[in-house]
Specification:
Elements: H1 2-7, H2 15-31, H3 36-63, E1 65-69, E2 75-80
Antiparallel strand pairs: 1-2
Length: about 80
């Protein structure tokens, strides 16, 4: 079980690295030239990568802020993009 957790540990990946590996996995699975056992293993890795990408996107969305400007055009403060 610990081996599986290590194989699927993508927590240190950047978004771009995770997406690139995910695209590679999808291409391999679409070609259909991968043995069944390996297909299952890389599909599981793909799921881990997908989840990681979703978490990174969610964190990025939470950091996006709209800058409020005062009458002179200087930043007055920030507020969440959705106005919350």
């Amino acid at each position: 079980m610990a081996e599986s957790a290590t194989v699927h540990d993508v927590s240190g990946y950047t978004f771009e690295k995770a997406v690139a590996e995910l695209e590679s996995i999808v291409a391999r699975l679409e070609r259909g030239d991968v043995a069944l056992d390996e297909s299952i293993a890389i599909y599981e890795r793909g799921e881990a990568l997908k989840k990681h990408c979703e978490q990174l996107l969610s964190a990025a969305e939470n950091r996006i802020e709209k800058i409020r400007l005062d009458r002179s055009g200087k930043p007055q403060g920030v507020e969440p993009l959705d106005g919350e």
